[in-house]
Amino acid sequence: MLVVEDDKLIATMFGDFLGRKGFRVIYAADGLEAYKAVLTEKPHVVLTDLMMPKLDGFGLFDALRSVPDFNAIPVILITSSLQPEDEVKAFDKGFFDFIAKPVREETLITRVRRALQFRERKYQLT
What is the mean pLDDT of residues 70-96? Predict the structure, then answer.
């Protein structure tokens, strides 16, 4: 599980939520660092903030989708943006899910589990 979040406190909170449920969490503070982490760690799910330095959530998604090996990784966009067009744009681009901040622990865990189940089913079909 890769958590991409430039706010260290929020990243730690997400990591705590996920860690309590047994997920192994790796962190990246921006989109460029996240891209490098995907290359080396090959996470099963990516949770990314929208607004980040160096490469935002949309840029990270585009970069990941340009590599065929990473097309099966579900990417969940998390944002504090209240712009409805951001959610529409995220789904139009192909993000697996969209979560608005503030994020409740139950919501995060449910969405991550759903993404993992989707990934497992996708691999079983190929």
Answer: 91
Tokens read off for 56? 């935002």
β-bridge mates for residue 97, sequence order = 76
H/E stretch holding 72: none
Enter the tokens of residue 119. 């990934």
Q: What is the crossing angle of helices 57-65 and 84-93, to 10°?
A: 10
Tokens read off for 100: 């608005």
**Looking at this protein, which amino acid is placed at residue 107?**
T
Q: Which residues pair with 21 in a beta bridge?
A: none
The residue to which tokens 């966009």 are assigned: 77
Cβ pair 48, 6 in contact under 8 A: no
Whether residue 126 is predicted with pLDDT greater than 60 in this model: the reply is no
Note if the pTM is more than 0.90.
yes
> What whole-number distance in Å separates Cα of residue 76 and Cα of residue 4?
10
Asked if the peptide bond before residue 43 counts as cis, ω within 30 degrees of 0, the response is: no
Q: What is the mean pLDDT of the chain?
A: 93
Q: Identify the structural domains of the chain with CATH numbers, from first to last.
A: 2-125 (3.40.50.2300)
